Amino acid sequence: MQDNYLGTVVDFSAPAGEAALLAPDSVQWRVYKNPIALGIGGIAAVLLEFAEPRIWSGVWDHSTYKADPIGRSRRTGLVAMLACYGPASTAKEVIGKVNRMHGKVKGETPAGEPYRALDPVLLDWVAATASYGFLMAYDRFVHPLSDADKTRFMRDGEVVGREFGARRSPASINEFMTMMAELEPRFEPHPIVFEFLEIIESGRAAPSVPRFLHRAIARAAVSLLPPHIQRKLRLDERYALKRRDRVMLGIAGRLADRRVDRASPACQASVRLGLPHDFLFSAPR
């Protein structure tokens, strides 16, 4: 799989033997291969990020979100895959370019509070929400993970977070909840949250996913937020996860976890490191 991002050719299959930022036996390699977990978890992460006024202001004022929300989401997804499976040198190069772009993002919220994208508190939060979202989506909608695997996932995430400038990476789910509690007094609802969920429910962001799953995926993402955070963001009963949603997504998640695609970043990265292309699908859990 090759793509061009920020002027860099992204090739998960080369150079042969070059390690990734994360090891093949990491929990991340197991989780990131699953598109259902990445979809649900990525949406949950964005919802938690948009709860912070300084973050949604930066996205609203400076990114391509308003003009091309789907394209922006796909580019963000590519960076996430690269950080997990890509050659470390390419991952660092692309992340460095992303950081330099973010260095230009600064302004004021509607309330007059200054913000800058490279604020350490915001960098910490964005990195932490991604880890939490992907991990919990896999645990709830694909395969339950042990407490030890969850802790290992959160701890290993520090390697990637550090590349993005994060200084504080929660080493467990409990530490993530502590971080969220510290920021929660700042959380507030904003139209960007509902606009984002409408895009997800419409199916425009993932046309390859069966249409009946789109609304279920949006509800599943909301369900990963603690109930009091849902209420604070005014994510009401309309976004409540239904039993049929959970059943459908569980089936889709488990099927996706067994689907081997030689062109996927996970398979190409495995071959790059001298492993069987289906290494992540045949390894014992």
Briefly summarize what is shown.
Helix content is 60%, strand content 5%. The chain is mostly helical.
Structure description:
With 285 residues, the protein is mainly α. Helix content is 60%, strand content 5%. The chain has helices at 27-32, 35-50, 53-62, 69-85, 88-102, 120-141, 147-163, 173-183, 191-202, 214-223, 227-232, 243-258, 265-272, 279-282, and strands at 2-5, 8-11, 106-108, 114-116. A hairpin with a 2-residue loop joins strand 1 (2-5) and strand 2. Helix 6 runs antiparallel to helix 7 and helix 9 packs antiparallel against helix 10. It starts with a strand and ends with a helix.
Q: Name the overall outline.
A: globular
Helix content: 55-70%
Find the structural class using helix and strand composition.
mainly alpha
- Termini gap: 26 Å
Largest β-sheet summary:
2 strands, antiparallel
If strands are numbered along the chain, what order do they take across the biggest sheet? 1-2
**Mean pLDDT across every amino acid position:** 90
Give unreliable regions as ranges.
Answer: none
The radius of gyration over CA amounts to: 18 Å
Approximately what portion of the residues adopt beta-strand conformation?
A: under 5%
Q: Count every beta strand, where a strand is a DSSP E run of 2 or more residues.
A: 4
How many H/I helices?
14
Order of helices and strands: EEHHHHHEEHHHHHHHHH
